[in-house]
Input
Amino acid sequence: MMPSIFVLDVPEFLPLVEHARSLPGCKVEGPRLGYWRLTASPVLSFRRKELGFKPAVWHGALTGGLVGHITHFDNDTLTIEEAAS
Amino acid sequence: MTAIQPIPIAGVHHTARPTWKLAETVHFYRDLLGLPLVHAISARGWGPEDHADFLHFFFDSGNGSTIAFFYYIGTTPPDFVAVRDDYRYRASHTAWRVATREDLLACRAKIEAAGIEVKYQIRHEVIESIYFNDPNGYSLEVTWQVRPFETVDRQDATRTIEAAVALENARGAAPFDAIDQVWTRKGAALAAEFDRAAEVS
Output
C-alpha cells in the first residue's frame, strides 16, 4: 500500500497539506472525517523548514495517523515508505 | 461509546504542594509574580498521629483559582519530594492561562525583570508557553491557547488515546515501545473509515 498520512484539519497542521499540494505525484484527499489524506509513491517526505514547523509541532506531525513505515525522522527531515508486508 | 454527564465542576480552585522554604516561596509568588496572598491556615497537626503542625497558604492565580502550599513546621523534606533534573519530574507542573499572546510576552518580561530565569518559550500545537521554576524547584508554565478546542480535536484525541490504550492492553503479546505504533494503528482504522466515507459522499 502506498505510504500516506492523515492530517487533522486544523490550522496548525495545514502547512503539511499546503506543501503536499505543491509536490508532484502527491495526492491530497479530503477533508473527510476531519482529516486530509496525503499519499505519495514510493516515498512521502517532508522537510521541517519548508513547513515552517517549530520542533514541538514537527515531532508530532504524524499524530493524525500513518499508513506506511517511517524510514527517517530527525529534527529536519521525515521520510515514510511503504510498509514491508 | 456513551457520552457521560460530567461531574459539576467549574475550574481549578487550588493545586497544592509542600514547601520547606516558607519565606522564599512567599517572596516569589507574592512579591515577584504579584499573586496576592489571599488565605492562610495555621493549625496544630491533626488526623494522622505523626502529622506536623502546619501552615497552608494560598495565592490568587486569577479567575477564581489559587496555588497553595503546605509548610510542615519542624520537619525536613522526605526523600520522595527531592527535586530532580528530569523531564519526568517536570511533568508535574502548574500551567497558568493568559488571554493573549501580548499577555504571554508581558508575563515573560515581568518574570525576567524580577530576576527569574525563563527556561524555554515553546510553540506547541494549540498553545504557546513559557517555562520557569519556583524556589522549590517546581515547574511553572504560562500558556496562551491560540484557538479553542473544537469537535474535531475531541474526536482526534479519542482516536489517538483509543489506539494507545489498545497497544497498552496488548503488551503481554507485543511490546509497546514507540509512538509509531500509535500512528500506524490509528492510521489503519482511519484509512478504512476514510474510504467508506468517500463511498457514501
